[in-house]
Task: structure prediction
Amino acid sequence: MARARLHRLIARLAALALALLPVACAQTTTAAPATPTVPVVYVVQRGWHTDIALPLDEMTPPLAGLQQNFPGVRFMVFGFGEREYVLTREADIFTMLRALLPSRSAMLITALGDPPQAAFGEAAVVALPVSREGLAAIEAAIWLEFDTAAGQPVLLGNGPYPGSIFAAARDSYSAAYTCNSWTAETLRAGGLAMPGTGILFASQVMGPARWLGRQ
Result:
């Protein structure tokens, strides 16, 4: 009788050990590494004009240093334009025609506290994944467009929106090199398949961008 009780006790202990075994294994299992995030750049349409937006937490110096002008910023939007046209904000036919001739240019920097889709609407924004190297190349291309003094962009004045400023740009603006040409060229520097020539209208940038975004 005692021997039978001993056998039953051993069987119960063995069953308990087997029941506890998966718990012990689960407690010592190493968690799978997190999937690295993929950087994203945003192409923004503002009427006939296109911009490039970057998340600040992905940006690096020197471009990220621009945040000092915009406390609390989460995204920065960059656009290229004809300097006299954007600074005077005159939309008469003569100013528009002069803007098609080779002339000085400006960069518009707009700071956003919310994602570009919230600021401009879902239909006006395309998010494009890009490699880390591609993002670095896009940042470098944007920074090189600024006309700088003592290592800082030359500011020209307040922009048309709250939280925006104008800065001097290097390239000449003309009918052959517009804001949309600049957007396509800058995205192409990051390895994105954008058209290389003949860019005039915003649709010539947004169309390929939407196609890339669907891939």
